[in-house]
Amino acid sequence: MQLLFMGLFAALAVAADQITKYLTVANIPLEGHMDFIPGFLGLTHFRNDGAAWSMFEGQQWLFAIIFAAFTVAVILEFKKNFLGFTTFEHWCLAAIYAGGLGNMIDRVRLGYVVDMIQTEFMNFPIFNVADCFITCGCIALIFHLVFFNRGFWKDGKK
After folding, report:
1. What is the number of domains present in the chain?
2. Is 54 left (phi over 0), alpha (psi -120 to 50) or beta?
3. What is the CA radius of gyration of the chain?
4. pTM, to two decimals
5. Could you list the active site residues?
6. Which residues pair with 43 in a beta bridge?
7. I want to staple 21 with a disulfide (CB 3.0 to 4.6 A). Which of 35, 82, 85, 114 is the partner?
8. What number is the average pLDDT over the span 32-60?
9. What is the mean pLDDT of residues 84-95?
10. What b/e readout covers 70-107, taking b as 16+ CB neighbours within 10 angstroms?
11. What is the model's pLDDT at position 54?
12. Which of 96, 89, 158 is nearest to 131 (CA)?
């Protein structure tokens, strides 16, 4: 039952990502900008065919290979729990996977990822909702592994 809820969560996260990307493309011209919270957060329609800071630009095959490998690892983890992850850590994996899937849908469908969220109070790459799920899922997973799942680091769990 829990796996069903995680799948539903991931599907809703992908839907939220795709809807925000659709609304961005439909309402903001390419490289156009719209204030959301003036001086803090804006919306800028940007096409990104790389990763953050446009690293690995044009390397769509690399992102596809990484996502395929991550998909296999996630399936094995949910099926066999070979890493000894807790329920919370599985939720973190669901968030990370949903974000990766949202961006992979763009890469396959468009050849690039639609980014739109721009921080105006600091110099940071423009990102999207999928990136938020990936980042928050990774931070929560690492934090939980370091501070709450010390058994993960024992030799028997590796």
Report:
1. 1
2. left
3. 17
4. 0.90
5. 115, 131
6. 34, 117
7. 114
8. 90
9. 94
10. beeebeebbeeeebebeeebbbbbbbbbbbbbbbbbbb
11. 75
12. 96
